[in-house]
Amino acid sequence: MTDLAPNADPRADAERNRAEITRLIEIMAALRDPETGCPWDIEQDFASIAPYTIEEAYEVADAIAREAWDEFPGELGDLLLQVVFHAQMAAEKGMFGFADVAAKISDKLIDRHPHVFGDESRDKSAAQQVKDWEAIKAAERAAKAEKGVLDGVALGLPALTRALKLQNRAARVGFDWPGAADVLDKIAEETAELVEARDAGDHAHLTEEFGDLMFVMANLARHLDIDPEGALRAANEKFTRRFAAIEAALQAQGRRPEDADLAEMDALWNAAKAQERA
């Protein structure tokens, strides 16, 4: 058992959790102390820290994708720091503190799991649980006076993720294509419109049509039960891997990619592709 492994005694684990969370909150408060803290930390605000919060979330996802379990605790710690950082800045403004953040998510989890913390039956499928979860969230949105179906889908989400959420919301009220075949037809239509915009030389229109095509591609992923973010990450990794094979093959000849023409690099790409499939 390593030092990071859970303790055999749950009570000891709970005590350590409390101690380390308290220590982290105290460290953050010290870093933000206007007289003795770190000048960089003191200068930050919600807007300046937000990009780091997003970046750290992606680094957690990256560690999972790479199965880099030795890095995983550190990446989760970096993400937790973002929560503590925002909570500390909020506390300084008299808005809320870390305990309020923890209480909000604890209350939400209890409210959204009546089959665990209430008297509802646990005898239902995961699909039914998703439907129940969405019904609870809809009631929460109604309580917030979010009247539109698409209200509350965060603007700050990555565009592809937000597209999926918007489409899922619309689909729940029946605004959706019957199946993937219909979406494929729409992709063909949007592709033709993209070509027309390109030929017309109107870059603003071209950008609009490209966005439409991307939006429909996200919808196709939804109909095929594919995570488009995950699929694109895998495609990025595949491209990186195969291009590295091109570089390695050329390096073995004492050359670099800029020393080769497209036809040669394409042949090396196909060789790397064939090697992967062998």
Automatic annotation (TrEMBL):
Its EC number is 3.6.1.8. Residues 44-117, 184-242 form the NTP pyrophosphohydrolase MazG-like domain. It comes from the Bacteria. GO terms for biological process: dATP catabolic process; dGTP catabolic process; dTTP catabolic process; dUTP catabolic process; response to stress; TTP catabolic process; UTP catabolic process. InterPro entries: MazG-like_dom (IPR004518), NTP-PPase_MazG-like_C (IPR048011), NTP-PPase_MazG-like_N (IPR048015), NTP_PyrPHydrolase_MazG (IPR011551). CDD domains: NTP-PPase_MazG_Cterm (cd11529), NTP-PPase_MazG_Nterm (cd11528). GO terms for molecular function: ATP diphosphatase activity. It catalyses: ATP + H2O = AMP + diphosphate + H(+). Belongs to the nucleoside triphosphate pyrophosphohydrolase family. This is Nucleoside triphosphate pyrophosphohydrolase. It comes from Paracoccus isoporae.
